[in-house]
UniProtKB/TrEMBL annotation:
Signal sequence region: none
Tree of life domain: Bacteria
Name of the protein this chain belongs to: TolC family protein
A molecular function (GO) term: efflux transmembrane transporter activity
Family: Belongs to the outer membrane factor (OMF) (TC 1.B.17) family.
Organism of provenance: Niveispirillum cyanobacteriorum
Length: 426
């Protein structure tokens, strides 16, 4: 009875992970439901929404965007007018020893910017604001990718724990079977030692999987602002690999950031070129003559003579920075194409691997393991053959977890590179 019970347990365990790999979280054996309270069921969208709400990097990028908006307002202002007062011909000698012969002049002056300085300056500030807006988008996309990677790691770790738990239960059942056969004289004592080693290895694998899960939950908690004990993972999305992998159309956020740099470089070059054009200062006022009590109006015009400073250095600097920005844009385009191509290749490879494991390799390994157990119970196979079949099945299930995680990691990277912005439905 003890032997048949162990074999039945082994066969049931062998068949369980096929359903485990493709079912909803309700049928998934994880530590989530036993060790952690279900206070926040996390899907990718809810996790990203929480991270966007709590992450300080997004707040910093929004503050820089507000600062750039203030710079636009400031750039669009004209120079302030100036009011002047002059007192002449007093405290001297002779008739000018007091204030009776003094002259008082009251004036108002205004600098008139020529060459479109104000408009060009405003355009440069707007280009800088566009760059800050692109930085905010990049911060959101980076955070969304990091959350997806952390959530994928947490779910993969949870499934690895479930797999390790199954492996440990199986190792214990087989060890009990081997022990009974050794006591009955039907198996060599060395097989009991091998079974004990297998059980210890299974326990070690479970301990490692639990540590991995703890670390993954802590990382996910740090991104979402929740405590590790408040996380409950929705794992239903993890096995879905039939999503459309077409990249978003149009330029991604990285390219738009570089394009904003180019636009800013052009605008700043225009500003520096306008600075070479002198501004005109107009003034008007009136003068009081204390000696005879008469008044007189006066007007004036002043224009700098661009002999020493024609802003050649500023223009050269702005032109060089524009060339650098255009080169960065070209390099970014090449780099993004390379990274997107690699992400698509990784996505396709992981998807094909997962489908092959799900459709053929794991079912075959489960069948082989079941037959090995049955044959061992009938004395047709040696224990080593059962152990080899078990390891093959465990390796295949581990490969499936890794392939699914690789698919979602590649999906996260591809979305980061091609999405114009992050959209979530919390």
């Amino acid at each position: 009875m003890r032997l048949h019970h162990a074999v039945a347990l082994a066969i049931s365990i062998a068949g369980a992970p096929a359903a485990w790999a493709q079912t909803t979280p309700a049928a998934t054996p994880t530590l989530t439901s036993t060790l952690f309270p279900k206070q926040a069921l996390l899907t990718p969208d809810t996790a990203i929404a929480l991270a966007l709400e709590h992450a300080p990097r997004g707040a910093a990028a929004r503050a820089r965007l507000d600062a750039a908006g203030g710079a636009v307002d400031q750039a669009n202002t004209s120079p302030n007018p100036e009011i002047g007062f002059e007192l002449e011909n007093f405290s001297g000698s002779g008739p000018y020893r007091d204030f009776r012969a003094s002259e008082r002049t009251y004036s108002l002056s205004q600098t008139i910017e020529l060459g479109g300085k104000r408009g060009r300056r405003t355009d440069a500030a707007r280009a800088a604001r566009d760059g800050a807006a692109a930085d905010l988008t990049l911060a959101r996309l980076d955070l969304a990718r990091d959350v997806r990677l952390a959530l994928s790691e947490a779910v993969a770790a949870s499934r690895q724990v479930a797999l390790a738990q199954d492996g440990l239960r199986l190792a214990v059942a087989v060890q009990d079977t081997i022990k009974a056969r050794v006591e009955a004289g039907r198996e060599a004592p060395i097989q009991a030692s091998r079974a004990d080693i297998t059980r210890r290895q299974a326990q070690l694998a479970l301990d490692q999987a639990n540590r991995r899960l703890t670390i993954a939950r802590q990382a996910l908690a740090g991104l979402t602002g929740l405590s590790p004990a408040a996380l409950a993972l929705d794992e239903g999305w993890f096995t879905r690999i039939d999503t459309d992998d077409a990249a978003a159309s149009g330029d991604g956020a990285d390219l738009r950031r570089r394009q904003a740099d180019v636009a800013r470089g052009r605008a700043e070059l225009s500003v520096e070129q306008a600075k070479a054009i002198p501004d005109v200062t107009l003034s008007a006022g009136f003068r009081q003559f204390r000696e005879d009590g008469e008044n007189a109006f006066l007007v004036g015009v002043s224009v700098p003579i661009p002999i020493f400073d024609s802003n050649r250095g500023g223009i050269a600097k702005a032109r060089a920075e524009l060339v650098a920005a255009e080169a960065d844009l070209a390099a970014e385009r090449i780099d993004l194409d390379r990274r997107a191509h690699a992400a698509r290749a990784n996505l396709a490879a992981a998807r094909d691997t997962a489908r092959t494991l799900q459709d053929s390799i794991i079912p075959t390994a489960e069948q082989a393991f079941g037959l090995a157990n049955e044959g061992y119970a009938q004395g047709k196979f040696a224990y080593l053959e059962v152990l080899e079949a078990q390891r093959t099945l465990v390796d295949a299930r581990t490969d499936l977890i890794n392939a699914l995680q690789g698919f979602h990691d590649a999906r996260a990277e591809l979305d980061r590179l091609t999405a114009p912005d992050i959209e979530v439905s919390p």
